[in-house]
Every structure is written in structure tokens, then in C-alpha cells.
Specification:
The chain is an alpha+beta fold. It folds into 2 domains: 1-30; 32-121, Immunoglobulin-like, CATH 2.60.40.2470. Helices cover 25% and strands 43% of the residues. It has 2 helices and 8 strands; from the N terminus they run H-E-E-E-E-E-E-E-E-H. The protein has a 5-stranded mixed sheet with strand order 2-8-7-4-5. Strand 7 and strand 8 (112-121) form a beta hairpin. It is elongated and about 85 Å long.
Length: 136
């Protein structure tokens, strides 16, 4: 080995260790959606009813870009917005667990999904939850 090659070996080793970390940091910087929440995340309903309720959809973006919200199984968007921080209240009717996608307009592969869980009460649960007011 030549003297100049010996100086390059540590630099190459350090570079090979740092390069994957650098690319991972750069990739995370390009993910526009920092946070996406749905509140409440659970809708509790009677056994034979549908969930008809108000839900708050909120998100924060890493940078200003257009994102659109849509139910997972539908083609049409509920809302699109360019603001980096959004909180929207929507009245929704669902009968089963439903996923909602927040999709960046410029890259649909970076979508983020959240679920609204539908929990059905059956008669046994109501009986167990009934308070006993008297012991006599």
C-alpha cells in the first residue's frame, strides 16, 4: 500500500458509516406529514346502529404543500388544503371500521392512514355496565 492509500482508508470507512445516516435524514426531511390524528378514534354505538358523529381531523406538515384527505375506499377527497397546520371538524356516517388517508398531492406514496374504530355494544355489555343502586 502506498502512503496516500493509508490515509484514504480511515476516510472511506468513516464515509461508508455516515452515508446511510445522511440519506436517511434527507429522506425524513422530504416526508411532508409530521402528524395526522383523528379524534375521537373510537365510535361506540348500539348493536344495530351506524356511527353518525363529529370527528376532528388534524395534521401538521413539515413544510407547506397541498395534502388531501379521503376515505381509504373512496376516490373522492373530503378536503384538500395547503396550510401546514390544519384542524377540521367533519360529520361522518360509518358502519364499520374506516381508514382515512392524508395524501400529499405531489407524492401519493407518502400517504399516512388512520383508522376510526367502530365498537358495537351488545345487550350483555349493557347489563354488565348497569349500576346496582340497591342491595335489597
Amino acid at each position: 500500500m502506498m502512503k496516500s492509500d493509508k490515509k484514504l482508508v480511515p476516510a472511506i470507512v468513516i464515509l461508508s458509516l455516515c452515508l446511510p445516516l445522511l440519506f436517511e435524514l434527507q429522506a425524513s426531511e422530504y416526508r411532508p406529514i409530521k402528524r395526522f390524528d383523528i379524534r375521537p378514534a373510537v365510535c361506540v354505538i348500539e348493536e344495530d346502529a351506524d356511527c353518525h358523529s363529529r370527528f376532528i381531523f388534524s395534521w401538521d406538515l413539515a413544510y407547506a404543500t397541498r395534502v388531501c384527505l379521503k376515505p381509504n375506499q373512496h376516490k373522492e377527497f373530503l378536503v384538500c388544503d395547503d396550510n401546514p397546520s390544519v384542524e377540521i371538524e367533519l360529520v361522518i356516517d360509518i358502519s364499520d371500521n374506516s381508514y382515512y388517508d392524508l395524501i400529499p398531492q405531489n407524492n401519493a406514496q407518502l400517504r399516512v392512514s388512520r383508522m376510526i374504530e367502530v365498537q358495537r355494544l351488545n345487550q350483555d355489555v349493557r347489563i354488565l355496565n348497569r349500576r346496582i343502586w340497591s342491595v335489597f
